[in-house]
Specification:
The complex is a heterodimer. By secondary structure, chain A is of the alpha/beta class. Chain A has 7 helices and 7 strands. Helix content of chain A is 44%, strand content 15%. A 7-stranded parallel sheet of chain A has the order 3-2-1-4-5-6-7, with helices on both faces. The longest helix of chain A has 29 residues. Chain B is of the alpha+beta class. In chain B, a hairpin with a 5-residue loop joins β6 and β7. The two termini of chain B are 26 Å apart. The chains are: A alpha/beta, B alpha+beta.
Chain lengths: 241, 341
């Protein structure tokens, strides 16, 4: 897929991987909309890109909020046209320091599922039908090694990502042949605020840079038609730009 | 005919009246039977407009309560809209008190948005062109924050945005839902696809259906914007060339396709445009072979459009049958397929 001129929505785009994706997509000529709960930070990211001459818009919504979904998709489609790419990057970690399951309030697990699983489900529902009718589109779930490995204290987050990955596989199976493709992308451990919240003592030198992960994710998007829909991909194994 | 008073839980179970103009046959079916009524090689053309929350409650600068219902976005970033007096959808539109008469420059305070009147349009001081203070993301965020779906008094409660979108809705161009497409679930669409029915889409800015003012209502639908992609034009030519039928989902699709073709000597070309085409008896469709639509009283403008596809006596007979069988009307009602078998 050529990214130039494509309409892209990235969630959780005010910092970290989401912000890096916004920038790389805009630099490739895509028309990008970023959404975050942090209105000012999100607007700052979009404004900086516009100052460079790119098309970038900021929306302030909580993707875990059911009432936010159609306003978000409507506003995004009004600004950049029918969406070609949707990146589910916004994630809740749950309470920190990360607790054991026995010390995790059920409401906290439910909240993590609401943001990391139900929100992306609702958002895909509002977008994928339009993509299928037009015959093409790409939906990316940003997942985690926590969905594969059994890490104590990563219960809520890990469970939400396992479920999100399986959701991606079933989406892919149901929409096989429509041109809408689904990918689960594991970005690896990155030097981000979320990582610092989860593991305050991590050595940044051992962590991937969001910038580098974003560039690799773009090479995936550019050859999306050649990658089986429903695939799980690790960013570290994707081509560098 | 009774109105459906709330969105239907299982729209595939909705009734579908199949009218075959060539044989005069009228058959009572269900929406889920649509795959049997279409053939491999047929092309279904849908209107992929998402529906805006086009109703804005607010007041004039002197505090008079009003409601503004957006009709369409115009090219200079302004909007045409219809002004209502106090009250909301729970009151029948014809019972609403008259709104104040506004002049150019009057400001409207509409929840989180503010707008000013830039033009008062004929034939009524209720028909306005307005400009919002906000633009871009701020305007759209404000619209979605302060707007509510346009709806009418026969409904039993306030609608949410998710009630008024088709399953393939994209750009928010429609002031009211392109309702012919509401019963189309993806189960049905994928079954149609499996059987060789092809799809194409266009975007058409469906406007308001009623203002409660006879003078204004007589001028509806107003000229409406459309966007027909090149891929849709190709799909139409391919389908017709292979003997397939082009079936429009809704009168907005008919008006966009036939309006576009009428502007270029009957040949359909892609692109954006505006149509004020009103079909009726004597109009010969050049693009569309049949349509899926709702069930309407024979006296409405929707029903007049149907006379371009079927003779009035047949449509009247169909309306009587629909009434007798308990078909429900309006946007969440039952369906009608006008297509030669």
């Amino acid at each position: 897929m050529k990214l130039e001129g494509k309409a892209v929505l990235v969630t959780g785009a005010s910092r970290g991987l989401g912000e890096a994706l916004m920038k790389h997509l805009a630099w490739k000529g895509a028309r990008v909309v970023g959404v975050s709960r942090n209105a000012q930070e999100m607007e700052a990211v979009a404004a900086a890109l516009r100052a460079q001459g790119h098309e970038a818009h900021a929306l302030a919504y909580d993707v875990g909020d059911k009432e936010a979904i159609y306003p978000l998709v409507g506003a995004a489609s009004a600004l950049v046209g029918p969406l070609d790419v949707l990146v589910h990057n916004a994630s809740a970690l749950g309470p920190t320091p990360l607790p054991l399951l026995l010390d995790t309030a059920c409401e906290d697990l439910a909240h993590v599922l609401e943001v990391n699983l139900i929100g992306p489900f609702r958002l895909t529902k509002a977008v994928a039908g339009a993509m299928a009718m037009r015959g093409g589109g790409v939906v990316v779930h940003i997942t985690s090694d926590a969905a594969v490995s059994t890490y104590p204290r990563w219960g809520a987050y890990g469970v939400s990502k396992v479920a999100l990955e399986h959701l991606g596989r079933i989406w892919a199976a149901e929409l096989e042949g429509t041109g809408v493709r689904f990918f689960n992308v594991d970005p690896g451990d990155m030097d981000t605020k979320m990582h610092r919240d989860a593991i305050p003592n991590a050595d940044p030198a051992t962590l991937a840079r969001p910038d580098d992960v974003a560039a690799r994710l773009l090479t995936l998007l550019e050859r999306a038609e050649a990658v089986p829909s429903g695939s799980r991909l690790e960013a570290s194994r994707l081509e560098a730009a | 005919m009774n109105a459906a008073r709330w969105p239907r839980e299982h729209p595939e179970a909705n009734k579908l009246l199949h009218i075959s103009p060539d044989t005069g046959r009228i058959t009572d079916k269900r929406v889920e039977h649509l795959p049997e009524l279409l053939r491999a090689g047929d092309l279904l053309v849908v209107n992929d407009a998402a529906t805006l929350p086009a109703s804005l409650q607010g007041r004039t600068e002197d505090g008079t309560p009003i409601e503004l219902r957006l009709l369409a976005r115009e090219e200079e970033g302004t909007w045409t809209a219809v002004l209502f007096g106090a009250g909301d959808w729970r009151m029948r539109t014809e019972d609403r008190p008259a709104p104040p008469v506004l002049s150019v420059g009057a400001r409207l305070l509409l929840g989180s948005l503010a707008a000013r009147v830039v033009e008062v349009l004929p034939p009524s001081p209720r028909l306005l062109r307005v400009a919002f203070d906000a633009q871009g993301a701020a305007l759209w965020s404000g619209l979605y924050r302060s707007g509510r779906p346009v709806q009418y008094s026969y409904l039993t409660g306030p609608l949410a945005l998710w009630h008024i979108q088709t399953s393939y809705a994209a750009r928010p161009w429609a002031a009211e839902p392109p309702s012919a497409g509401l019963p189309l679930t993806w189960t049905l669409l994928l079954e149609l696809r499996r059987r060789g029915v092809r799809f194409a889409s266009l975007t058409h800015a469906a406007g308001l259906s009623s203002t409660g003012d006879a003078l204004l209502d007589a001028r509806l639908p107003r000229p409406e914007r459309f966007d027909i992609p090149a891929s849709t034009v190709e799909a139409i030519h391919a389908a017709r060339g292979a003997g397939g039928r082009v079936v429009a989902v809704g009168t907005t699709v008919v008006r966009a396709l036939e309006g576009r073709a009428a502007n270029s000597n009957g040949i359909l070309t892609p692109g954006e445009g505006v149509t004020d085409l009103l079909l009726g008896p004597g109009f010969i469709p050049r693009v569309v072979n049949g349509l899926l639509t709702g069930v309407h009283e024979p006296t409405t403008s929707h029903a007049t459009l149907l006379q371009a596809f079927a003779p009035l006596p047949l449509l009247q007979e169909a309306a009587q049958i629909a009434e007798k069988l308990g078909y429900l009307g309006h946007e969440f009602g039952d369906s009608c397929l006008v297509l030669n078998a």
